[in-house]
Amino acid sequence: MAHAWTHGSFYWNELMTRDAERDKKFYADTLGWTFEGMPMPDGTYWVAKMGDQYVGGLFPLTDPKFARVPEGWMSYIAVDDVDARVKKAQSAGATLMRPIFDIPNVGRIAILKEPGGAGIGWMTPPKV
Questions:
Q1: Which residues span the domain enclosing 106?
Q2: Is residue 41 a part of any domain in this protein?
Q3: What's the pTM value of the predicted model, to 2 decimals?
């Protein structure tokens, strides 16, 4: 899933959903997206494509640990060093919502709540 990125720019968007089949149908019917499944421990992550280009993903909220997470779109910003940037973010009032984690071939990811309360993902993608 690696593609070119620039530090500080939006890199990825994913829909956190409880009904991936409903949402896959909606975006296929209205935008022409197709989907590739990626098995994960919490269910199948669906990568959305427009032609041969990756455009986003559908994250399943099926695990009980996500019971309080609302459905909605989550954006991710590319950063040069997620660990160092998270330390700066925390010093500036952000909260790390879960430990920083790695997804092979995708990147190192942090989920933050910025000082105003909005959720945002920061990630250091793999080298292209």
A1: 10-124
A2: yes
A3: 0.85
